[in-house]
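Hey,

Quick one before I head out. I ran the complex with zinc ion overnight. Inputs first:
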Amino acid sequence: MKVLKIDHIGIAVNNLDDSLSFYTDVLGLKCQGIEIVEEQKVKVAFLPCGDSELELLESTSPEGPIARFIEKNGEGIQHIALQVENIEEALEYLKEQGMRLIDEKPRYGAGGAKIAFLHPKATKGILLELSERS
Ligand code: ZN
């Protein structure tokens, strides 16, 4: 598998609008757009940061993964995403290595990317996302 760069860092927040003002007004980043990803019960704001992005994630449901994350850990970094050249190939390779995957097949992520998560048990405690952008 070939990792190209850190694609984005996903940050779980209680309230997107409240959090955005820090990143835009104080840090001076630009919000490039907001998207709801129904499948993951999440509303995402994209903040490009050089060659990668920060993604602020607000849950759209109390049952969503972001809501559950905040309940357990509070607000903060929820996952790190690596951009790979070919996600199907990467997943196949990781499976061969005996890595535990959350997604065996890529699914649709924010911004039209193909994404898949590795299990934190396989990565020494971080939720790692693979992302392929076309
Ligand atoms: Zn992500």
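The two ends are 17 Å apart (CA to CA).

Talk tomorrow,
K.
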